[in-house]
């Protein structure tokens, strides 16, 4: 489960990495918005016991909100209570 969260957080952080010189607003504009993630699949892990799938019905597993200024909020609904990660 931690691998899924680390993967999701890593992917969301990778969205904001670029080589400079590009207009950040131009890069982020197509990604800005709220993304509901209802299924994650992990395969090919070094430890095969960490391969697996998370599927949520009703409420999304994760809600990623990307703002055009480069900040984001990630809500993890797989935990009880739900946790929120914010980056500035």
Description:
The protein is an alpha+beta fold and 88 residues long. It has one domain (2-87). The chain has helices spanning 2-14, 24-28, and strands spanning 33-37, 39-42, 52-55, 62-66, 72-76, 83-87. The chain has a four-stranded antiparallel beta sheet, with helices on one face. A two-stranded antiparallel ribbon has the order 2-3. Strand 5 (72-76) and strand 6 form a beta hairpin. The radius of gyration is 14 Å and the shape is globular. The two termini are 25 Å apart. The mean pLDDT is 74.
| Structural class assignment | alpha+beta
Number of domains: 1
Low-confidence stretches: none
- C-alpha Rg (nearest Å): 14 Å
**C-alpha end-to-end distance:** 25 Å
Kindly state the percentage of residues in helix: 10-25%
Order of helices and strands: HHEEEEEE
Look at the structure and give the mean pLDDT: 74
Side by side, the strands of the main sheet go 1-4-5-6
Large-scale geometry: globular
Instruction: Work out the number of β strands.
Output: 6
Number of helices: 2
Biggest sheet statistics? 4 strands, antiparallel
Approximately how much beta-strand content do the residues carry?
25-35%
């Amino acid at each position: 489960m931690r691998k899924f969260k680390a993967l999701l957080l890593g992917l969301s952080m990778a969205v904001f990495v670029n080589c400079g010189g590009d207009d950040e607003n131009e890069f982020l504009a197509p990604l800005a918005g709220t993304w509901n993630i209802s299924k994650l699949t992990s395969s090919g892990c070094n430890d095969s016991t960490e391969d697996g799938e998370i599927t949520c019905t009703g409420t999304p597993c994760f809600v990623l909100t990307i703002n055009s200024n480069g900040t984001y909020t990630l809500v993890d609904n797989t935990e009880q209570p739900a946790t929120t990660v914010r980056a500035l």
